[in-house]
């Protein structure tokens, strides 16, 4: 219910601007915007158009239904048979009904932006399917009527009723709620109860080739193709004479539309658009020479903003008939940059960079445009900076000097080094001060003619801007230096005094200063507002009045008062009018003049006003006219739209678009919003957007905001596309809104979408991560426990090692101590051994010596015995000898020796005896002496035998020891 109410309200608002704003200006040519086939990239022919509840425009093009959103053109759908589209109609739900060639049906928009076409021809019987172009499609009540020359189809409740002619239908008309059909056999018919009935005297319409019917207060107005206009009243048909009949009959009427206040727009086949009023007066004739791109008009419609859209045989044109601004053009359109305009003796003069031109202003205002041309004033062909009326003369100020214009020619009055403009000297109306490129010049009015006098001495600056005061002071603004205030001497041939004002005098800057005279007050335009001179300090200060209304942030380029106490201004890029109210306050109006932005010639902005309320603006694109009686509503709401959304990575893939065949269609119904969920790989998006405001669409600015990514709205810019890359997962809302040249902000458009997280950031992934985290925690705890256990074991091991090391150190210390004790003991033992060895050696030496003595004694006794010395007692000798033998045997001494020897040589005797039991005691004694490294000679006395006996004993011992003949017995004994 709410949606239906909103749509009905939208349709109601759709028609309100048409009623209030569609009247076209009579003076000048409305602004025209042309769209050629190269611009919209489709077929040149367009037959019909409509606008939906949002404000979107659709055109019946040869290639299909073409959409225009103010920025982009696109074919959005085609009939099933791919034929051309000839007619369109739309219901309150934005369902479009389409008439094509041999086909008709309807189209709806899906949630992805696509338009789905459904043909209704399948509901027809086979006998009714052979028809040509469906020229008209009309929605009436709860039925849709499709008209072709062969048949009329009435679609209702999913059924189609077919009405056939006797031969062929000619044309179809919707007049309010009535439907009329012209028939070459029966004349004019009216549709009643799904049947065609003849109106009264219908035969008089046979062969008229009616192209449009309008209902007026005087009856039905008929537009015929070649016979002009007719009025049908009281069942009588009579010609309706107009001022445009000379155009209608030869150039053939093709279409028509009823505008407000009884105006009619009539399209022709060969001469463009003609506008007449209810009385038949010619208001406008807009053809190719006046800016229309083609003279063959196929259809006419007015949009919600009051603009007239004209479909042509080649291209589309938008005529801004609701604007109070228009261009002063003629068919030649010869003028270029305009520096000044002036009305003099009912003629409009314009100063351009190619000289001065004029046209008959009174005739032009009356609409006699067909035969009016701008005519060139001969004698000047270069930049003319100003034209003005001084006394009874029209003077022009040109590059080569001052000229007087008379008729169609100009006469040089004063050759100067360039002339910018002229002003009358206060209190001396016969003296004209001319500002030149390098100073000032004086002209005097003598016998109603201006005569050059001289150049004024003492001032040689460029004097393009001059303003005078009542007291005779002259103010001259130099755009790059500052402002001069000068006074002349009494003869006006020299400058008496010069005062100079620049930034040091209080101006915000010395550059781009200007001076104006408003209500006898000298004011100055600066880059930071309007200034005036303080009467006491003589400093330049901001003017309070203009500070209040214009501020101090804009460059004031022009201030000019008209004769109705309005103050016109150009501030920054804005043109405006300050109108004083009865209370003394001012109302500021700028919106009607926004179209003038960027059109002025920089530095030569000019506004000309007249007593009749006409205002002229000189621009780079010709002369523009304004009339305050033509009003328009500028605060109308409109919509911003999102035209297209696509993912740009890894490859372009469209999410939302109305372009034909770029997205797969489906059977879903159109929704109010679309909220796709995108994979993380598609996290780079490109948005295209536009606004459904067609007035100066190129100047519309946009701001956008991606909620969820950006903290606030962007700055306003002319950009109609925005790209985002590397978006993280989450929900986003893209917002966009527009601001047109009238600073009206559109309704917001939004696109919601969601980016899914990558697989590694999904819920399942987080569960897996949680599990892995648990496992990791468990592993860490386990590892920590193992590590702690290993650390404990390592600690115990280290402690054990430390204990062992300590023990080892103690053992080492103990061993060292023992070794030290052993060393001491060894040293003591060695000392003891040495002592014993010494003792043994000594004993042995003594024994050897003793044995040697004994042997010597024995030998001597033997010698005695041999000599039988009688003097010696034999028995005594025998006893001595026995004693010696006993000592030589040395058993007692041997036992002591053996005990000491075993102690010194690790029980050598016992080990040797154990190993070799066959050894005799004598053998053992010999081995002991060999161990002591005694030689044979030393051993012999110890054994009490001879050396030979020792050798024999050694031999016997070798055998017992089982030594080879090569072995050394001594080495064996020493190593045993």
UniProtKB/TrEMBL annotation:
It holds the Pfam family Y_Y_Y. Keywords: Coiled coil, Membrane, Phosphoprotein, Transmembrane, Transmembrane helix. GO terms for molecular function: DNA binding; phosphorelay sensor kinase activity. It comes from the Bacteria. Residues 916-973 form the HTH luxR-type domain. Residues 800-827 form a coiled coil. GO terms for biological process: regulation of DNA-templated transcription. The chain crosses the membrane at residues 763-781. InterPro entries: Ig-like_fold, Quinoprotein_ADH-like_sf, Sig_transdc_resp-reg_C-effctor, Tscrpt_reg_LuxR_C, WD40/YVTN_repeat-like_dom_sf, WH-like_DNA-bd_sf, Y_Y_Y. This is ABC transporter substrate-binding protein. It comes from Flavobacterium pectinovorum.
């Amino acid at each position: 219910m709410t949606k239906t109410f909103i749509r009905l309200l939208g349709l109601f608002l759709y028609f309100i601007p048409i009623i209030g704003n569609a009247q076209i200006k009579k003076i000048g040519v409305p602004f025209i915007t042309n769209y050629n086939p190269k611009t919209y990239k489709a077929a040149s022919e367009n037959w019909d158009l409509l606008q939906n509840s949002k404000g979107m425009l659709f055109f019946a093009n040869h290639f299909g239904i073409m959409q225009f959103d103010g920025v982009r053109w696109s074919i959005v759908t085609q009939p099933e048979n791919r034929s051309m589209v000839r007619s369109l109609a739309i219901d309150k739900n934005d369902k479009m009904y389409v008439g094509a060639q041999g086909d008709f049906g309807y189209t709806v928009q899906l949630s992805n932006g696509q338009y789905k076409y459904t043909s209704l021809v399948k509901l027809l019987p086979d006998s009714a399917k052979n028809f040509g172009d469906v020229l008209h499609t009309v929605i009436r009540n709860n039925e849709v009527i499709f008209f072709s020359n062969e048949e009329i189809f009435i679609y209702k409740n999913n059924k189609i009723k077919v009405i056939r002619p006797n031969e062929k239908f000619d044309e179809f008309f919707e007049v309010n709620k009535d439907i009329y059909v012209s028939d070459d056999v029966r004349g004019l018919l009216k549709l009643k109860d799904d049947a065609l009935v003849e109106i009264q005297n219908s035969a008089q319409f046979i062969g008229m080739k009616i192209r449009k019917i309008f209902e007026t207060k005087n009856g039905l107005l008929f537009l015929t193709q070649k016979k002009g206009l007719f009025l049908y009243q009281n069942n009588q048909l009579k010609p309706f004479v107009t001022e445009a009949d000379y155009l209608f009959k030869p150039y053939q009427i093709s279409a028509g539309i009823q505008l407000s206040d009884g105006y009619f727009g009539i399209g022709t086949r060969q001469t463009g658009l003609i506008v007449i009023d209810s009385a038949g007066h010619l208001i406008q004739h807009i053809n190719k020479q006046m800016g229309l791109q083609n003279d063959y008009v196929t259809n006419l419609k007015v949009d919600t903003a009051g603009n007239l859209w004209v479909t042509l045989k080649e291209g589309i044109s938008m005529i801004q008939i609701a604007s109070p601004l228009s261009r002063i053009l003629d068919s030649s359109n010869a003028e270029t940059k305009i520096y000044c305009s002036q009305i003099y003796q009912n003629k409009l003069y314009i100063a351009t960079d190619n000289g001065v031109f004029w046209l008959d202003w009174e005739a032009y205002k009356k609409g006699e445009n067909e035969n009016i041309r701008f005519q060139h004033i001969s004698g000047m062909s270069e930049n003319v900076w100003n034209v003005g009326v001084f006394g009874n003369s029209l003077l022009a100020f040109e590059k080569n000097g001052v000229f007087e214009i008379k008729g169609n020619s100009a006469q040089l009055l004063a050759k100067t080094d360039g002339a910018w403009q002229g002003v009358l000297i206060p209190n001396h109306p016969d003296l004209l001060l001319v500002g030149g490129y390098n100073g000032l010049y004086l002209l005097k009015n003598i016998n109603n003619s201006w005569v050059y006098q001289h150049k004024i001495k003492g001032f040689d600056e460029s004097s393009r801007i001059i303003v005078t005061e009542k007291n005779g002071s002259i103010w001259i603004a130099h755009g790059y230096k500052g402002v001069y205030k000068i006074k002349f001497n009494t003869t006006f041939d020299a400058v008496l005094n010069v005062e100079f004002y620049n930034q040091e005098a209080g101006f915000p800057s010395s550059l781009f200063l200007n001076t104006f005279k408003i209500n006898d007050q000298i004011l100055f335009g600066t880059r930071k507002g309007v200034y005036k001179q303080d009467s006491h300090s003589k400093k330049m200060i901001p003017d309070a009045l203009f500070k209040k209304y214009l501020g101090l942030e804009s460059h004031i380029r022009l201030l000019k008062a008209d004769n109705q106490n309005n103050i016109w201004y150009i501030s920054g890029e804005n043109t405006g009018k300050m109108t004083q109210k009865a209370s003394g306050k001012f109302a500021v109006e700028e919106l009607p003049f926004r179209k003038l932005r960027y059109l002025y010639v920089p530095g030569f902005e000019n506004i000309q006003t007249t007593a009749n309320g006409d205002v002229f603006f000189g621009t780079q694109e010709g002369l523009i006219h304004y009339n305050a009686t033509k009003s328009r509503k500028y605060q109308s709401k409109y919509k911003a739209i999102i035209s297209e959304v696509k993912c740009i990575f890894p490859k372009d893939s469209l999410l939302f678009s109305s372009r034909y065949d770029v997205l797969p269609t489906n059977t879903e119904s159109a929704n109010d919003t679309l909220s796709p969920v995108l994979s993380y790989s598609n996290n780079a998006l490109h948005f295209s957007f536009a606004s459904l405001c067609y007035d100066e669409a190129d100047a519309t600015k946009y701001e956008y905001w991606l909620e969820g990514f950006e903290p606030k709205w962007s700055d306003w810019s002319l950009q109609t596309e925005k790209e985002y890359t590397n978006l993280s997962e989450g929900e986003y809302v893209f917002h966009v809104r527009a601001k047109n040249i009238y600073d009206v902000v559109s309704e917001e458009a939004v696109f919601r979408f969601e980016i899914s997280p990558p697989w590694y950031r999904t819920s399942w992934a987080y569960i897996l991560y949680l599990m892995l985290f648990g496992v990791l925690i468990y592993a860490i705890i386990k590892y920590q426990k193992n590590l702690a256990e290993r650390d404990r074991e390592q600690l115990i091991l280290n402690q054990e090692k430390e204990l062992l090391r300590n023990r080892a150190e103690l053992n080492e210390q103990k061993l060292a101590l023992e070794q030290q004790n052993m060393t001491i003991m060894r040293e003591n033992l060695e000392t003891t051994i040495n002592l014993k060895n010494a003792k043994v050696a000594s004993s042995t030496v003594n024994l050897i010596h003793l044995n040697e003595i004994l042997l010597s004694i024995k030998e001597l006794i033997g010698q005695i015995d041999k000599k039988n010395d009688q003097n010696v007692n034999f028995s005594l000798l025998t006893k001595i000898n026995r004693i010696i033998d006993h000592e030589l045997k040395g058993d007692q001494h041997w036992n002591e020796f053996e005990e000491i020897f075993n102690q010194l040589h690790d029980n050598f005797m016992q080990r040797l005896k154990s190993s070799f039991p066959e050894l005799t005691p004598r053998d053992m004694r010999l081995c002991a002496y060999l161990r002591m490294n005694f030689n044979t000679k030393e051993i012999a006395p110890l054994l009490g035998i001879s050396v030979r006996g020792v050798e024999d004993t050694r031999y016997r011992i070798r055998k017992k020891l089982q030594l080879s003949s090569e072995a050394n017995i001594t080495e064996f004994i020493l190593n045993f």
